[in-house]
Structures are given as structure tokens and as C-alpha cells.
Design a protein that fits this description.
Elements lengths: L1 H18 L15 E6 L2 E6 L11 E6 L2 E8 L3 E8 L5 E3 L6 E6 L4 E4 L6 E9 L4 E12 L6 E12 L2
Antiparallel strand pairs: 1-2, 1-11, 3-4, 4-5, 5-7, 6-9, 7-8, 8-10, 9-10, 10-11
């Protein structure tokens, strides 16, 4: 009987352990780690800077000048996430407020999604260090396919920690 109870207890522990959902996104940081990550329609999307790319290219670019922030990450799945927004301090910024727009491109299917007044998003700038040129934050958005407005993509749990030009 003791063996049976041990088997039941071990089975319960195994089920509980197996049912725990592992977050495969990197932790949000504020140290200039040159990373951008998100869940795109529930699938993990990650891009880091590519220091050994041919001709000095990079899979992650960040430019911040005159309070305009542009971050472009090209994921390993042949897709890009781009954030373009006016940023003057750490705060929350919405895509439907004037200049700001967030995009997702899938080069495998040649589909382009962009935030619209109907589908918007938020970027939360958590750090701007102008002396070290680090900008960090989180983001999420829904975007509309330019060819089919009923085709909506969801980008969630996004985070970036980049050194900008």
C-alpha cells in the first residue's frame, strides 16, 4: 500500500511540474543587452544584435535622435518588428497618438501588419540613459494586415533593451 501511495504522489508531482508553463522569453533588462523579444500570435520571437554579420550588418538596429525612437529587429523567422515613436522621457506611449506606429512584417508570406486607429498598441519606456545610449522598455500591440483589414496579428509581452545610435 505504501508503494501505491508513493506512485500516486510521484504522479501528482510529475503532473504539476509538467503543467507549469515555462516563459521562453528573456527577462526584461535595462543594461543595454541589445535584445528585442515578444510573443507573436503566441509564438516566441527573439532578436539580438549580430556583431559578426557580413558587412557589419545587424539583426537589431536602434536610432534615437531629436526624441524620435526607431527600433527594428529582424527575427530568425525572417520577420521584423519595428517601433517608431516620439519619446521624450520614460513613460507610456500609444501607437494611435499622432506620429507613433508599430509594425510586423513576415517576409516568408510577404505580409505587412501595421497599427491603425482600430488596432493600436503601447510602448512603456522604462529607461533612457543618454550618457550610455541605452533605452529599454516593454511593448504590445495589435496590427492590421495592409491587404486584409480583418487579418489581425497580436504582438504581446514585448521587451527591448538596446544601445542606440
Amino acid at each position: 500500500m505504501k508503494t501505491f501511495k508513493k506512485i500516486i504522489l510521484a504522479s501528482i508531482i510529475l503532473l504539476l511540474t509538467a503543467s507549469c508553463k515555462k516563459d521562453d522569453l528573456p527577462k526584461a533588462t535595462q543594461e543595454g543587452k541589445n535584445i528585442m523579444a515578444a510573443k507573436v500570435n503566441g509564438k516566441t520571437w527573439i532578436q539580438t544584435a549580430c556583431w559578426s554579420c557580413i558587412n557589419g550588418g545587424s539583426g537589431l538596429r536602434a536610432n534615437y535622435s531629436n526624441n524620435i525612437l526607431n527600433i527594428v529587429g529582424q527575427g530568425s523567422s525572417n520577420s521584423t518588428i519595428e517601433l517608431l515613436l516620439f519619446v521624450d522621457r520614460p513613460s507610456q506611449y500609444q501607437s494611435n497618438s499622432g506620429f507613433n506606429s508599430f509594425e510586423f512584417r513576415d517576409y516568408n508570406t510577404d505580409e505587412y501588419y501595421k497599427t491603425t486607429p482600430k488596432t493600436n498598441g503601447i510602448v512603456n519606456i522604462t529607461k533612457i540613459d543618454r550618457s550610455k545610449k541605452i533605452i529599454s522598455g516593454t511593448f504590445s500591440f495589435k496590427a492590421e494586415n495592409e491587404d486584409d483589414p480583418n487579418d489581425i496579428i497580436t504582438v504581446a509581452d514585448g521587451r527591448f533593451d538596446v544601445i542606440y545610435n
